[in-house]
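RECORD TYPE: inverse folding
INPUT: C-alpha cells
STRUCTURE:
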C-alpha cells in the first residue's frame, strides 16, 4: 500500500519507519523543512532505540519519501495517518491547530479514495470535527478513521511491531478494512528483525483488532493512559502508607501483581509519573469530563497523589537535614524515564525546580542529556559525569532508572561527597549494596 504519514515527530517517524519496514511504500510529510532535509540525510531528530537502525534498513530496501510537499506525499495514497502534536494550551484545553492544519492539507491534496486516519491523541469528537473540515475544504467527503497509538518512548518501535492490540475507530467498513490491511503483516507475525535482533515475543496468540466507532476509539486512548497513571499513583500511595506503617512496597507490588486480575506492570513506586503524555492526557480527560458535567474524582486523585510524590525528595531531605538552604545535591537522571532524551514534564526536573526554590544547589548528570533548555538551566547545573555531580554534595538522588546507574562506583562517589545520603527515587538499586558503600539508603516505601 502507499501510505502517507503526516508529521515526522516521535509517533509519526516511528509509524513511518515501521510501516516501511513491513513493506509499505511510505511518504513522510512534515512542514518543518529542516527536519525533512535532516531525515533525508539520515539524521534522526531524537533518540529512540532501534529507530536509527530501522530507518537505515528502510533506506536500503523501501526508502521513505521524506517531503514537505503535500501534493507529492499524498498522491496515490490509500491511507493518510495524522501524527501531529496535540499539546494542551495554557488553559489546559487541547490545542488542535496542528491536527486541523494537517487535515486541511490532506483535504486539499488527497485522492477521493484516501482514508484519513487520526493517530494524534485528541478529544472525543475530533474525528467528527476533522470529517466536517475536510468536507468543507474539498466540497466532498473523505473517509475518516481513528487509530490511537500506544507507543511508549523508549520501546516505541517494539510497541508498534508487537502491539497488544490494534484499535480502529471508523464509521464505514471500507475505512476500517483499509487501516487493518496496513497492519496485516504485523497481525500475521511477519515482522522483520532489526540488526539481526527480533524485538518481540514469538507470536502465539493472535493480536486482537478492536473496531469501534471513532468516539469510542478516541476514548480508548485516554482511558488507557489514565488507567496506567492511576495504577502508578495507587502504588505510590501504597508506598506512602508503607513508609509510615513499615513494609516494603516493592515486595507488596510483586505479590499484588501476581494476581492475574491486577498484573505486574506499572506498579513501580517512585517519584511519580511524567513525560509528554500522562500529565497532558489526564488534564485533557479531566477537562472533557468537567465540560460534560462529570466529576472525575479518580483522575483528580491520581493527579494529586502524583504531585505529592514529586515532593518525596524534599520531604526526605528535610527529614534528614532539617533546614535545606545551602545544601547541595547530586541528581542522577533528568529524563522522565530511561531510553529517551525527553525532558518534558520530567519528575526529575520538577524536583530540581522545587529544591532550587528551597535554596538547594542541584548538580545533575544524565547519560544522554548534554544541555538543558534555558528555562531549566538557571536551576540545574549540568555535570559531565556522576562523580562531578556528587562533588561536595550532601545527598545523591537517583531520579531516572538508567541501567548504567547500576554500574556506579558508589565508593568513589561517596569519597567526594560531604555526606553520604542516597535517595533512590526509583527503588532501582539494591539497598544492601548502597549501604555497603557507606551510604544511608532511603528508597520509596521500602
Ligand atoms: C505512555 C504510554 O505508556 C503509552 O502507551 C502511550 O502510547 C504514550 O504514553 C502516549 O500517549 O503517547 P510514555 O509517556 O512514553 O508512554 O511513558 P511510560 O512508559 O508510560 O511512563 C510514563 C511515566 O510513568 C514515566 O515518568 C515513568 O517513569 C512512570 N512510571 C511508569 C512509573 O513511575 N512507574 C511505573 O511502574 C511505570
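DESIGNED SEQUENCE:
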Amino acid at each position: 500500500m502507499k501510505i502517507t504519514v503526516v508529521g515526522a515527530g516521535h509517533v509519526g517517524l516511528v509509524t513511518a519507519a515501521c510501516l516501511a519496514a513491513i513493506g509499505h511504500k511510505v511518504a513522510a510529510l512534515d512542514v518543518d523543512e529542516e527536519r525533512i532535509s535532516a531525515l533525508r540525510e539520515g539524521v534522526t531528530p531524537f533518540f529512540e532505540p532501534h529507530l536509527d537502525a530501522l530507518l537505515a534498513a528502510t533506506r536500503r530496501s523501501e526508502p521513505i519519501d521524506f517531503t514537505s510537499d503535500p501534493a507529492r506525499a499524498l498522491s496515490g495514497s490509500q491511507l493518510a495517518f495524522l501524527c501531529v502534536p496535540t499539546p494542551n494550551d495554557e488553559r489546559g484545553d487541547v490545542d488542535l491547530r496542528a491536527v486541523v492544519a494537517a487535515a486541511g492539507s490532506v483535504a486539499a491534496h488527497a485522492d477521493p479514495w484516501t482514508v484519513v486516519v487520526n493517530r494524534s491523541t485528541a478529544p472525543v469528537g475530533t474525528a467528527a470535527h476533522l470529517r466536517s473540515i475536510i468536507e468543507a475544504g474539498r466540497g466532498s467527503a473523505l473517509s475518516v478513521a481513528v487509530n490511537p497509538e500506544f507507543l511508549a518512548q523508549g520501546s516505541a518501535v517494539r510497541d508498534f511491531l508487537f502491539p497488544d492490540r490494534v484499535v480502529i475507530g471508523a464509521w464505514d467498513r471500507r475505512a476500517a478494512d483499509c487501516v487493518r490491511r496496513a497492519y496485516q503483516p504485523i497481525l500475521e507475525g511477519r515482522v522483520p528483525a532489526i540488526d539481526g535482533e527480533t524485538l518481540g515475543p514469538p507470536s502465539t496468540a493472535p493480536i486482537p483488532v478492536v473496531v469501534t466507532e471513532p468516539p469510542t476509539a478516541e476514548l480508548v486512548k485516554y482511558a488507557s493512559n489514565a488507567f496506567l497513571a492511576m495504577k502508578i499513583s495507587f502504588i505510590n500511595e501504597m508506598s506512602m502508607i508503607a513508609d509510615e506503617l513499615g513494609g516494603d512496597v516493592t515486595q507488596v507490588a510483586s505479590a499484588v501483581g501476581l494476581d492475574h486480575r491486577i498484573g505486574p506492570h506499572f506498579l513501580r513506586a517512585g517519584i511519580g509519573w511524567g513525560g509528554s503524555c500522562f500529565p497532558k492526557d489526564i488534564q485533557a480527560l479531566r477537562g472533557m469530563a468537567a465540560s460534560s458535567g462529570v466529576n472525575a474524582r479518580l483522575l483528580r486523585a491520581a493527579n494529586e497523589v502524583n504531585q505529592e510524590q514529586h515532593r518525596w525528595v524534599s520531604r526526605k531531605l528535610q527529614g534528614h537535614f532539617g533546614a535545606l538552604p545551602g545544601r547541595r545535591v547530586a541528581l542522577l537522571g533528568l529524563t522522565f524515564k530511561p531510553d529517551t532524551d525527553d525532558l518534558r514534564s520530567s519528575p526529575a526536573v520538577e524536583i530540581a525546580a522545587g529544591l532550587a526554590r528551597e535554596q538547594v544547589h542541584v548538580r545533575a548528570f544524565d547519560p544522554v542529556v548534554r544541555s538543558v533548555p534555558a528555562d531549566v538551566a538557571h536551576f540545574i547545573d549540568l555535570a559531565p559525569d556522576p562523580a562531578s555531580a556528587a562533588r561536595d554534595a550532601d545527598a545523591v538522588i537517583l531520579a531516572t532508572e538508567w541501567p548504567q546507574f547500576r554500574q556506579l562506583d558508589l565508593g568513589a562517589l561517596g569519597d567526594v561527597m560531604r555526606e553520604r545520603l542516597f535517595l533512590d527515587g526509583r527503588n532501582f538499586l539494591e539497598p544492601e549494596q548502597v549501604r555497603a558503600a557507606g551510604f544511608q539508603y532511603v528508597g520509596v516505601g521500602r
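NOTES: The radius of gyration is 23 Å.
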